[in-house]
Structures are given as structure tokens and as C-alpha cells.
Design goal:
Blueprint lengths: L1 E6 L2 E3 L5 E9 L6 E7 L5 E8 L4 E3 L7 E6 L4 E6 L8 E8 L3 E3 L3 E5 L2
Length: about 110
């Protein structure tokens, strides 16, 4: 069994930054892919970014140039550095990790407001 726990969410002003972390624990020590989705109120969850074990990354168009994903495999942790945050980035951010199946974290709230 695998558990993913996010941290780093909170309230930030427009133009500010936050760094989300997602740490995995349990019986799997290597993930082919780790990444982030977000969910706006009343909407379906949407892709934000992913990072593969070989270092490839991909971003949603509306976060390119503002968000940076990275991972530390020794710590089984994936990060999402979010800069130049906008009110439209307000959402619940959930991490995921892919191995034999896809595992999901519970999510962390990010609110961008003045």
C-alpha cells in the first residue's frame, strides 16, 4: 500500500509563490511518474504537471513558465514550485504517483487572493 501526503498549500497574494510537496510512504520505492492535478470548485480535476523517472517533464499550458515540478526519488517526494500565482490558480491541488497503479494524495488547498 502507498500513501501520498501533500503539504505547502495555503493563502497567498496575487503574484506570490508557494511550494507544494508530496511525500510517498509505503511498500513502493520507485515511481515511473509523479505529478500534480488541480480541481476548481464544481469542475473536474485537471492536469497541472508531471515528472517521469528519467527526468522528462510536462506542463499544462496555463502554468508553463510559472510552475516548476521536481522530484527527489531518494525521498520519494515530488514538488511543485508555483510562482507568479494568480487568483485563477485557486484550487485543490492533488499529487499522484504511478507504479503498478495510480496513487493519489488527499489534496491541499491553494487560495490566491488579496
Amino acid at each position: 500500500q502507498v500513501e501520498l501526503v501533500e503539504s505547502g498549500g495555503g493563502l497567498v497574494q496575487p503574484g506570490g509563490s508557494l511550494r507544494l510537496s508530496c511525500a510517498a510512504s509505503g511498500s513502493i520505492f520507485s515511481f515511473a511518474v509523479m505529478g500534480w492535478y488541480r480541481q476548481f470548485p464544481g469542475k473536474e480535476r485537471e492536469f497541472v504537471a508531471f515528472n517521469t523517472k528519467d527526468g522528462s517533464t510536462s506542463y499544462a499550458d496555463d502554468v508553463k513558465g510559472r510552475f516548476t515540478i521536481s522530484r527527489d526519488d531518494a525521498k520519494r517526494t515530488v514538488y511543485l514550485q508555483m510562482d507568479m500565482l494568480e487568483p485563477e490558480d485557486t484550487a485543490v491541488y492533488s499529487c499522484y504517483a504511478g507504479a503498478d497503479t495510480i496513487y493519489w494524495g488527499q489534496g491541499t488547498q491553494v487560495t490566491v487572493s488579496s
